[in-house]
Amino acid sequence: MPLLDSLTEALRVLPGVGPKSAQRMAYHLLQRDREGAARLAGTLAAALAEVRHCARCNNFTEAEVCERCLSQQRDASQLCVVEMPSDLMVMESTLAYRGLYYVLMGKLSPLDGIGPRELKFDKLVERATDGMVQEVILATNFTNEGEATAHYLGEMLRARGLRVSRIARGVPVGGELEHTDLGTVAQAFVERRGW
Amino acid sequence: MPLLDSLTEALRVLPGVGPKSAQRMAYHLLQRDREGAARLAGTLAAALAEVRHCARCNNFTEAEVCERCLSQQRDASQLCVVEMPSDLMVMESTLAYRGLYYVLMGKLSPLDGIGPRELKFDKLVERATDGMVQEVILATNFTNEGEATAHYLGEMLRARGLRVSRIARGVPVGGELEHTDLGTVAQAFVERRGW
């Protein structure tokens, strides 16, 4: 197969990229921005080699344990569980939370074959039962899948004697943290309730 | 800058990819499809190293001269000028043309700084005046920019004594006047031919 066709096909691993836009991207990279294309190839290879998951919070990092988890400034008695790194960043920018995080890197999604094992719930349990954590705050999205994830995690963590809370439903039903204004997210955090 | 952020930024060289979707793509590549991501990095690097422009038709190829230009089965007296490789493929799939091609790899677009020099019109002139070509068929799109490109090329090639034609514009085959835009119907009327 010609390399141009291989490249078009390889670009289709990107989410939301169909055959037409993959072709347009391949032309663009080879014709209009070879420098950017070379940077993309190099950065992607480097990221694949270097980026891993933090041993404590599961977020992306290039170290064994990420900076946030190592910080002495955070309240180690609170652990906030989010779906994705982008959700963590939304929580951080509200400035309403000073505890630590656990990033699931997804949500329960049986149709896509993503269950408790794929999301490594055991790693979260181990993290939450370190003796320091006193409250686990579930901040998964208020979508069906996010809610199901929160329910499952709530039961699992309460069974281990942990106090569990859920951010308040100030976030619109069916809405996602990433697309919610900061004030609403902050309010939902303040109004979290027993779960 | 963390590699994850570098990757998100590098992905923005792709046309139509903004900050949000670049982030989603970076997560997807690192979290859900590392194999596909490695293939993409490798193929992109290989394509950058190997894919060049055919010395005759300017299309992408991995050889000095592409297979189509070397073929003995094509009519070397006709040269069809298209904007992009995808346009060439559309022409080929009509099975209506047996001549050769020249691929501009773009169109005149002064606002984007793309002029006759960027599109290497001199390479086209050299190709068209090889002594074999008797007719140059302009098959650029019927957009403003495609039309401007055709006008410019037409004047330039006619000045070199070449016969120049333009693919026809009109009501689509199977199309109904009622469902065709007025500009097209008006143009089809103006360009009516003997019957």
UniProtKB/TrEMBL annotation, chains A, B:
Presence of the UniProt keyword DNA damage in the record: yes
PROSITE patterns: TOPRIM (PS50880)
Top-level taxon in the UniProt lineage: Bacteria
Gene3D superfamilies, A to Z: 3.40.1360.10, 6.10.250.240, RecR Domain 1
InterPro entries (alphabetical): DNA_Rcmb_RecR, Rcmb_RecR, Rcmb_RecR_Znf, TOPRIM_dom, TOPRIM_RecR
ZnF (C4-type) intervals: 54-69
SMART domains (alphabetical): TOPRIM (SM00493)
Keyword terms, alphabetized: DNA damage, DNA recombination, DNA repair, Metal-binding, Zinc, Zinc-finger
Short name of one Pfam family: RecR_HhH
Ranges where the Toprim domain occurs: 77-172
CDD domains: TOPRIM_recR
Function: May play a role in DNA repair. It seems to be involved in an RecBC-independent recombinational process of DNA repair. It may act with RecF and RecO.
PANTHER family: RECOMBINATION PROTEIN RECR
HAMAP family documented for this protein: RecR
Family per similarity comment: Belongs to the RecR family.
NCBIfam families from the UniProt entry: recR
The protein's name: Recombination protein RecR
Organism: Uliginosibacterium aquaticum
